[in-house]
Amino acid sequence: MAALTAATAPAKSLLRKLLFHSPLLPKRSPLRFSISATTTATYSTLRNKNKNKNKNKHEKTQKQKQKADLLLKRRTRSERELDEEGFSKQYGNDNSAHVPVMLGEVLDVFASLSLKSFVDCTLGAAGHSAAMIQAHPEMEFYVGLDVDPVAHEIAQAKINMFLNKDSGSSTSDLQAHTLLKNFKNIKTVLHDIDGKHATSGVHGILMDLGMSSMQVNNAERGFSVLSNGPLDMRMNPQAALKAEDILNLWPDDEVGRILRDYGEESNWFSLQKKIVNARSTGGLHSTKELVDLIRSSASWTRGGRQGWIKTATRVFQALRIAVNDELNTLKDSIHSGFDSLASGGRLAVISFHSLEDRIVKQSFLDIINCGEDGGCKEEMGLYSSPKFDKEKEAWIKQIVQGQNATILTKRPITPSESEERLNPRSRSAKLRVIEKI
Ligand SMILES: C[S@@+](CC[C@H](N)C(=O)[O-])C[C@H]1O[C@@H](n2cnc3c(N)ncnc32)[C@H](O)[C@@H]1O
Question: Where is the composition biased (Basic residues) (predicted)?
Fold first, then answer.
């Protein structure tokens, strides 16, 4: 029995074949019956033991990860107090409204600059844009971009309100452009609007990544795990590729690759097989069909409802990243964004998952290490520079000094506890900032 317990999976399967399918054994042999009962019991014990072992291992890793996350959170939490009353007044009764994440922190990042020009790469509902325009009456040139026509329309109306064209307020001098464009084209967009800003650079750029509440709340867009809709997931509805094309047409390995690399899903291979098998019965066409497929695998994924929701969230994230080519776009755009800054200008990026944050962090490091000739400077100084006014810029804790830029957030800034409580969508947000020398 000990040997059986120690047997490897292929050996066990061979043993089972020999015991159950041996031509030497009569079909209804009592011997076969007695061996089968014992063997079944042993397998069941084995399976349970392995299950418990894996469960304990998984729980231990999860606990370690949670502990590390908590520690990092404690170190990076924003110290800024959220105006809870104002927040509740503005967003409390409206579940559909998009609430700008880390708004106070974003305002702090640009507060010390004379922000004559600003580009919001991700307009959404223009929450950040509107607040930035209000906070910087000196602003002369504003550009807001989004690939989503719904966001673009909402944002344009909001920005127009702040322009107050007839009121004679200082913002009336603002030259504002809201465009239905991908932020990866920031250089050409600036060039096409105004060659001057393309050459001299702009003073501030913001990228607030991820989806808006308008996108998630509209089931027809296919972003939501919890409401049924078509498997679309395009941020730009004119784009050719939809999530269902990936699920129903892409090569098996590619489906697995995105689940593994973009969803960081440990059960990627089983899911890949299930998705590919579903093709023989017509494929997957709605978010419910995909969620049901994931739920039907819940016996081997852990954690009941929370388990399948987490798996579904990872699968949806993977598809969304692939449909919108989000990671490549981000990598390229951080570099083009940085190139589009004027000297002293700042680029702020809010990311919502570790894959994005890793790209932001690495791209910033690449930028500060490389000189104009492309040669990389070996040393990175880490110090508190007298250049920054500690009183006015208390949010700057540790910087990383490079040759042509300074990373102002050695560690990312994460939302305050009160913001996380009032706006759970902000929980995974990380803000990183770089300043051009
Ligand atoms: C989180 S929302 C921005 C919310 C906004 N900051 C606000 O305060 O309302 C992200 C927006 O970025 C847009 N977006 C995502 N990828 C984009 C890209 N590559 N180019 C332009 N817009 C993009 C999405 O369509 C979405 O509207």
Answer: 49-58
Give the residue whose CA is nearest to atom 3 of ligand 1.
124
**Ligand 1 mean position to 122 CA, how many Å?**
3
Cα(343) to centroid of ligand 1, in Å? 26
Instruction: Tell me yes or no: is domain 219-325 CATH 1.10.150.170.
Output: yes
Q: Domain residue spans in the chain?
A: 84-213+327-436, 219-325
Say yes or no: CB of residue 207 within 6 Å of ligand 1: no
Mean residue pLDDT of the chain comes to 85
Mutating to test ligand 1, I would choose from 105, 129, 134, 146 the residue with most ligand atoms within 8 A of its C-beta, which is 146
Indicate the fold that domain 84-213+327-436 takes in CATH: Rossmann fold (3.40.50)
Q: Is 235 in the pocket of ligand 1 (CB under 6 A)?
A: yes
**What are the tens digits of pLDDT across the range 224-274?**
999 999 999 999 999 999 999 999 999 999 999 999 999 999 999 999 999
Q: What is the pTM of this model?
A: 0.83
* Distance of CA 120 from the midpoint of ligand 1 (Å): 9
> At CB < 8 A and 24+ separation, what contacts does 351-356 make?
351/209, 351/210, 351/429, 351/430, 351/432, 352/209, 352/210, 352/428, 352/429, 352/430, 353/317, 353/428, 354/264, 355/262, 355/264, 355/321, 355/327, 356/209, 356/210, 356/326, 356/327, 356/330
> Could you tell me if the CB of 125 is within 6 A of ligand 1?
yes
Which region among 15-29, 161-175, 330-344 has the lowest average model confidence (pLDDT)? 15-29
Chain centroid offset of residue 336 CA: 20
Q: Please check the confidence at residue 377 and state whether its pLDDT lies above 60.
A: no
What pLDDT is stored for residue 23 in this prediction?
40
